[in-house]
Amino acid sequence: MADLPATMQAAVLTGHGGPEMLDIRSDWPVPRPGPGEVLVRITATAKNNTDRKVREGLYSTRDDAAVASFAMAGDTLRFPRIQGADVVGRVAAVGEGVDAARIGERGLLDFNIYPDAQPDLNLAPDYYGHGADGGFAEYGVFPSDQFHAVAGALTDAELATLGMCSWQTALHMLTSAGVAEGEHVLVTGASGGVGAALIQLCRVLGAVPHALASPGKEAGLLGLGAASVIDRSRSDWPDAAGSAGVDAVMDLVGGEMTPRLIELMCRDLRARRTPPRLSIAGASAGAVTRIPWALIYLNQVQIFGVSHGTRAEAGRLVGWIREGRLRPILAGTMRLSQLREAEARFADRGADFLGKLVIVPDSQWDQHGAASALA
Predict the structure, then answer these.
(1) Which of 152, 170, 176, 287 is in Cβ range 3.0-4.6 Å of 197 for a Cys bridge?
(2) Overall average pLDDT of the 110-120 stretch
(3) DSSP characters for 89-119?
């Protein structure tokens, strides 16, 4: 550790607000690993919608939006905070109890701050980039057992697009609803990080994904494996979606769309072999929805609220990544010093934007960012 620098570049979130709350520093202290931890020299960190929501304080739980930020694990957000959950890099140093042979190992972070060691349950989710510092920096400290070694031909930026924040949420949506081989699954918000992951994971599990998306995304989503793409701007989109015979819905949109999604699953209950199921892990169209409960209980609809995932699901995903079964979707890279601009680009994604935006520290740009720079 004596060879490590004392300070580093870091994007520090100083409070709730706009991108101006991000302070790009070059004098932030380099952390040191404690027992059971590794210090990672960060080369790439993918952006997620949760970065923006936490910055803006948009995780409300009531219709007055009185609850700011993410509070399921308690009041763990402290300012200043380094955001960024989907971290890729190389082990630069190890703490007590960690094999020094890991130094130099490339890996991908399981972003969760787990409340306990249970493999299949995570009811108080928190994560690196919220309850502890994340990846928008040159170095970060993480649990050694959650920094998973991944070799192979993927670039670091590509590997970051497979980060757990999107993929583990997507897998947990599918496993919570018990999606099985051969079932037809409708995915809303399909062009985002979780939506694109859902399409690929359906194919891995043998299910048939159908995408509900805004215009201009059809070619990209079909290329990912969607069996069909429904234009959500059409007033008759439920008819188009219902024609596929939807077994389960993976909803990332919420708002007024959710009751219509439930209704389309209930059109021909006699023909179903499983109950209508809806997993919801987002509310980009509105956090408060009026749902007639008679629609739910009379039709025996099962609804699953999903946030993050479990240790076991992270292990499954890492295995699939190592086997090359998951395809990276890299929209482009931007420098860490451009993070404020990246926030604006991420919020204003157009019809031609598909995949993940990855942030690369300026010191790593030539090696890990320049080749895929966002135009």
Answers:
(1) 170
(2) 95
(3) EEEEEE-TTS-GGGTT-EEEE--B--SSS-S
